[in-house]
């Protein structure tokens, strides 16, 4: 609760006591006690969260991707938990946790990392479609739970987040020669032979790695944070981040060959090596990180190709090929949102304004969402970007969450 609000309650309480209104004073005392425990909501609502949940949140507690057959992914659940925490929406947060546990983790998140995908099967039933976890969703979910435990003073969330982080460290972290300790995209399917691994740079937000490294100093997190600039700078092509990288054998990471076998979080298959729907998050994560977070400045320099491109072009590219050439220039509204914090981090105020103006122009006055079709992925990128630019949340250099309502 804000200090000014506490003082207002105290002044009102003293005034009631002087006037002999004991019963009213008692009621106000109870209200004040609730406020001191985090139960008094004096913060402004987050209109975009309200619009987002009207469109994508099912009352059962799942985030629905209407652009992909109404499926739900662990990524969507994790992002939803983070946004609910930023919005101080404890009811939806709890429902998201419960639905995820019941439907993606076999009823027990303390034992099982959540399955990546849930939706309508060919036989018409609704069930888990892909049981392999997605490590970036696991990171965001563990982080949201840990910070919910701290900010809402709920040890249950803190314990659950701690257990999830431990399982990520055990099942989804590996040592890759030429890179160092890093994150596999999932426990299975990304280690095609003894000397090579397929990695996704967008799965490694530096703020989260810094947080886990501080919270669990005995784990692999500090080493992962230290290897991140290696992965981003050596894996970039002409300063552009790539969606997927092949690494190992002591060689520098290179764009992974496109065999179409690996999923992307945008719901597409990787048909060719490129920087596109996954890679756009690399710029976003670097932009929203505290600039003093270890490795951030070096990583920003390693993916400076996007900054150079946006000095001459009004829209981020949708796709960059494995040679670092732009092959599709028409990035969606979510791409514009994602680069706004990145441009701020590079002190490119004029270029940032161009992207912000595009967002304003493309906001639907009826739905309150962005873009003509209000696509799921675009809305998630916009939620992260606008929440940060409006200072509804931020991270310190250790990755701890700073929220407006606190």
How is the secondary structure organized here?
Blueprint (H helix, E strand, L loop, with lengths): L2 H16 L3 H15 L10 H10 E2 L3 E2 L8 E2 H13 L3 H15 L12 E4 L5 E5 L4 H17 L3 H17 L1 E4 L3 E4 L13 E3 L6 H10 L5 H15 L9 E4 L2 E5 L18 E2 L4 H9 L7 H7 L2 H6 L8 E3 L4 E3 L4 H13 L3 H13 L14 H14 L3 E3 L5 E3 L3
Whole-number average pLDDT?
A: 90
Radius of gyration: 22 Å
Q: What characterizes the major β-sheet?
A: 3 strands, antiparallel
> What is the ordering of alpha helices and beta strands?
HHHEEEHHEEHHEEEHHEEEHHHEEHHHEE
Strand order of the largest sheet: 3-4-5
Uncertain stretches of 5 or more adjacent residues? 1-7, 22-32, 34-42, 264-271
- Measured by DSSP, the beta-strand proportion falls in 5-15%
Shape: globular
Helix/strand-derived category reads: alpha+beta
What is the tally of helical segments? Answer: 15
Based on DSSP secondary structure assignment, what is the total number of beta strands?
Answer: 15
Measure the end-to-end span: 6 Å
Question: Level of helix content?
Answer: 40-55%
């Amino acid at each position: 609760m804000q200090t000014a609000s506490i003082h207002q309650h105290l002044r009102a309480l003293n005034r009631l006591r002087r006037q002999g209104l004991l019963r009213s004073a008692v009621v106000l005392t109870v209200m004040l006690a609730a406020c001191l425990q985090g139960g008094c909501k004096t913060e402004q609502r987050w209109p975009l969260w309200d619009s987002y949940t009207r469109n994508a949140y099912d009352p059962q507690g799942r985030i629905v991707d209407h652009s992909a057959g109404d499926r739900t992914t662990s990524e969507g659940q994790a992002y939803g938990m983070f946004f609910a925490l930023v919005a101080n929406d404890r009811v939806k947060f709890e429902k998201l946790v419960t639905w995820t546990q019941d439907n993606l983790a076999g009823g027990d998140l303390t034992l099982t990392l959540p399955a990546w995908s849930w939706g309508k099967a060919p036989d018409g039933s609704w069930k888990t479609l892909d049981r392999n976890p997605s490590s970036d969703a696991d990171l965001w979910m563990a982080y949201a739970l840990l910070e919910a435990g701290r900010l809402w003073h709920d040890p249950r969330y803190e314990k659950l987040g701690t257990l999830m982080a431990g399982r990520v460290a055990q099942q989804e972290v590996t040592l890759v020669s030429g890179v160092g300790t890093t994150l596999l995209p999932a426990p299975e399917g990304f280690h095609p032979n003894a000397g090579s691994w397929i990695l996704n740079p967008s799965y490694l937000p530096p703020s989260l790695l810094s947080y886990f490294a501080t919270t669990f100093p005995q784990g692999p997190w500090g080493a992962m944070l230290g290897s991140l600039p290696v992965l981003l700078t050596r894996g970039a092509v002409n300063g552009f981040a790539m969606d997927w990288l092949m690494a190992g054998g002591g060689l520098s990471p290179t764009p992974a060959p496109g065999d179409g076998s690996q999923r992307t979080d945008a719901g597409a298959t990787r048909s060719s090596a490129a920087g596109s729907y996954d890679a756009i998050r690399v710029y976003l994560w670097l932009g929203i990180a505290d600039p003093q977070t270890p490795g951030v400045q070096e990583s920003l320099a390693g993916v400076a190709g996007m900054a150079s491109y946006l000095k001459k072009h009004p829209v981020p590219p949708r796709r960059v090929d494995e040679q670092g050439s732009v092959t599709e220039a028409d990035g969606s509204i979510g791409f514009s949102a994602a680069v706004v914090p990145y441009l701020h981090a590079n002190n490119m105020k004029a270029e940032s304004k161009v992207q912000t103006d595009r967002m304003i122009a493309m906001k639907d006055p009826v739905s309150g969402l962005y873009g003509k079709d209000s696509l799921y992925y675009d809305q998630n990128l916009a939620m992260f970007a606008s929440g940060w630019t409006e200072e509804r949340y931020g991270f310190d250099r250790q990755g701890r969450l700073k929220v407006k309502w606190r």
